[in-house]
Amino acid sequence: MTNTEQKVALITGASRGIGRAIAMQLASDGFAVVVNYAGNTALAEEVVADIESQGGRALAVQADIADASDVTRLFEQISAAFGRLDVVINNAGMMQMAKMTSDNVEILDRTLATNLRGSWLVMAKAAETLSEGGRIIAFSSSVLGKSFPGYGAYIASKAGVEGLVKVLANELRGRDIAVNAVAPGPVGTELFFEGKSEEQVRSIANLSPFERLGQPDEIAGVVSFLAGPQGRWVNGQILRVNGGMV
Question: Which of 24, 30, 98, 185 lies in disulfide reach of 104, CB 3.0 to 4.6 Å?
Fold first, then answer.
């Protein structure tokens, strides 16, 4: 992989769901794509194969974004394989429901470790790596506008991510690197449907005036905008992509 003219995008958590849709979209946009994943090698390699079957370039790299040494290794492997990096999209994250009780503090710790610490590590390494014209795109959630019971740990982590986005955008002043976040509403992914009844799905879908769930491709389209030439003047923003849910 020695074509140093082609732009390169890293997507964390890209083996399925929204991350996979983003990887496919950016490959279609002309990026070489790094498909980061935490544990499922087979799924990640399927994404790579799908991109390559359409004439694109892709590489799967395992790394836990909450682990600083893993994040360093991830960026080193990208440099070795492609010789450049232009866009970093931190889509990886976790959500575990838990009420705010004393015995659930470990769930808070785990959620913050992946969603907030992981975002810090990936965004920081991106800031150290990207050159002029680079883009950093984090992921938040539109559930911040609803404050549903049981979402405390997840909301706390994503509120922190939104704060980091605005701070980093200011810290990168003068370097022409845009830092933004996408905050989806409910999206019809395998993970979303897991453990939910049809009634629960309908109830959640009806939160939007469109009365339906979002689709992974719709989120990927917004990321494509931010990563592409039309998004060059968007910086320090949180784009709430939720069909009007909030």
Answer: 98
Whole-angstrom distance, CA of residue 54 vs CA of residue 209:
36
CB-based contact 185:242 (threshold 8 Å):
yes
Active-site residue (options: 154, 222, 227, 242): 154
Tokens at residue 201, please? 């799905």
Instruction: Encode pLDDT of 80-91 as tens digits.
Output: 999 999 999 999
Domains of the chain, earliest start first: 8-186+215-241 (3.40.50.720)
Contact 33, 57 (CB under 8 A): yes
Q: Can 151 be counted among the known catalytic residues?
A: no
Residue 4: count other Cβ atoms within 10 Å of its Cβ: 9
Q: Quick one: which of 151, 146, 43 has its CA closest to 97?
A: 151
Residue 36, strand partner residues: 61
Q: pLDDT by residue (tens digit) across 35-47?
A: 999 999 999 999 9
Region for residue 196 given its phi and psi (left: phi exceeds 0; alpha: psi -120 to 50; beta: otherwise):
beta
Q: What is the DSSP string of 134-191?
A: -EEEEE--GGGGT--TT-HHHHHHHHHHHHHHHHHHHHTTTS--EEEEEEE--B--HH
Coil, strand, or helix at residue 55? coil
Q: Structure tokens of 211?
A: 């009365």
Name, in order, each residue with C-beta under 8 angstroms of 39's C-beta and a sequence gap of 6 or more: 62
From residue 46, alpha-carbon distances to 34, 184, 219 in Å are 13, 25, 21
